[in-house]
């Protein structure tokens, strides 16, 4: 849909259709609310209000408006699904996930350090055994220590 | 501030003060917008509009309204700071953090598995050396293998 050439022969954008007004050339909503997706505007209008969205879009640069509308649509949909927490619920879930993963990573790194220390000790064993003519270096199943970093 | 007993002797809540109206007993905003924090209502009003917030609060149960107001205030503040992405920006950052941590954890677990396999091999070495009267079991620096799980 070419919004700059909006005319009576083009369908109005989803916002103008919802608001029952003529979609004039230069309509601030038109490029971001195509008539094929009426729900997007309906959600954003219910949560933020058309006037607030219009003000916000006018306050930011044109090349950032699509991202702004999409983030507003995301927030609005989240608030429709979860009226109490909205997308802040997703933030809480993600924050807990980050804390859990960081703890797991710390624990795994600690385990890895213990293995690395144990391996260092093993090399010491190797040194202790170097002069004992053991089968150490002739072991049929050498370990791929080089792969460990 | 006791909202149920709001009277002319009490200051109006931040919402009623902002909207220049009398704060009557039963005011839907009063318990969540104390007069000491005018910015909280100002932000929420600018982003969502007082009417939308009032509708939303009336649609949810009383015991959930405080959480709802706090999540709205969080979203509103995030949108004031970042008009393009709002708190969706925080979601993107957290999502990337989760992906990065999960990758790091997978890589660390893979390293741990290699050490575990190497350690299993080391025990094999031990078995190979068992009948060779080496200093294996008399090593002065035994490794704390028991700590590794």
UniProtKB/TrEMBL annotation, chains A, B:
InterPro entries: LOB. Keywords: Coiled coil. One of its GO terms (molecular function) is DNA-binding transcription activator activity. Residues 91-118 form a coiled coil. It comes from the Eukaryota. GO terms for cellular component: nucleus. PANTHER family: LOB DOMAIN-CONTAINING PROTEIN 25, LOB DOMAIN-CONTAINING PROTEIN 4-RELATED. This is LOB domain-containing protein. It comes from Solanum lycopersicum (Tomato).
